[in-house]
Each structure stands twice: as structure tokens, then as C-alpha cells.
Amino acid sequence: MAFRNKFRMTEANDRSDAAHGIEGVLLANRDRIIRFLSVRGAGDAAEDLFQDLWMRLTERHSGPVADPLSYVMRAANNLMLDRYRSVRQSQLRDKAWGEASAVQNPGAEAVLISREQLAMTERAIAATGDRPAHIFRRFRFDGMLQRDIAAEMGISISTVEADLRKVYAALAAVRRQFDVG
Fold first, then answer.
1. How far apart are CA 97 and CA 91, in angstroms?
2. How many helices (H) and strands (E) does the chain have?
3. Where is the signal peptide (predicted)?
4. I want to staple 106 with a disulfide (CB 3.0 to 4.6 A). Which of 18, 110, 119, 122 is the partner?
């Protein structure tokens, strides 16, 4: 038992010594590390990145490091790579959002084509008859179950299914016209 406690105390001291060792390297080489971060592209954010580096390295519980300065510089380089990747992902995301917003603001021609296609779709649904059109709207727009529609209208579920197939066939024909035109 005493051996375990002594081992735990030694382990805690090793962690503490390692943290103080890294802190000492960070303090002794602060200007050098900030210059390194600046040259690697951090610019004015080098001070903030140094603080991030400090937090990353002093929070970790690591054992003794053979070459602490190399360890710190490699960690600084990895921090810059993480930052670069983050900025790159942000730029790609912003570009994608920009392209998506361009699609959301269609030109006059696209608006006219969409209105024409909507009118064709509404005519195709209406051409299937009043009951199939009503069943389709209740099912697709109102989200009712087929059995509930059948009960509401006093018809069988198979009739509801047949009417839905009729409307879907009409919509498929309209869709083919869109694809061709």
C-alpha cells in the first residue's frame, strides 16, 4: 500500500515537473515562438495562438520530453496546421453558402419556367378527377394516412391507393415533359 501511494506521488510529481518544464520552455522561448507563428501566417493572431498553445501543452499530462523545445515548436506548427484547415473549411463553407444563396435568387426566366411547370402540374392533378386530386392533397399535403382518408370519404383503402397511383402516373408524365423540355 505504501508503495502504491509513493508511486502515485512520484507520478504526480513527474506530471508536475513535465508541466513546469514545458511552461519553462514556453516562457523562455515566448518571443521565438510568437515570431515562428507570425512567420507561419498567424500575423496579428500570433499572441492568441501562443495562448492556445500554452493551454494545450500545460493541460496535457505527459511524461518527460527528451527535447522540449522541439516538442513545443512541433506543437506550434500543428496548431498552425489546425488553424489553416479551419480557415480553409470556413472558406469552403462560405463559398457553398454563397452558391446556395445564388440559387435561391433565381432570374426572371427561371421564375417564369417554374410558374409554368407548377401550372402544368396543377392541371395534370386536376385532370385525374376531383376525388383523386382531393385524395392526393389530403395524403401528400395534409399528411393523412390512407386508411383515414378512406374512412373520411367512405371508400376502401384500395380505392385510395388506385386514385393515388392515377395521380402519380399523371405527375410522372408531367415530369418527363420537364426533363425533355
1. 10
2. 8, 0
3. none
4. 110
Give a three-class secondary structure readout of 98-141: HHHHHHHCCCHHHHHHHHHHHHHHHHHHHHCCHHHHHHHHHHHC
What is 2-103's CATH number? 1.10.1740
What is the pTM assigned to this prediction? 0.43
H or E element at residue 63? none
pLDDT band at 161 (very low <50, low <70, confident <90, very high): very high
Which residue reads 421564375 in cell numbers? 111
Q: Which residue has the cell 394516412?
A: 145
CB 72 within 8 A of CB 22: yes
Query: How would you classify residue 45: left for phi > 0, otherwise alpha for psi between -120 and 50, otherwise beta?
Result: alpha
* Residue located via cell numbers 426572371: 108
In the predicted model, is pLDDT for residue 170 greater than 90?
Answer: yes
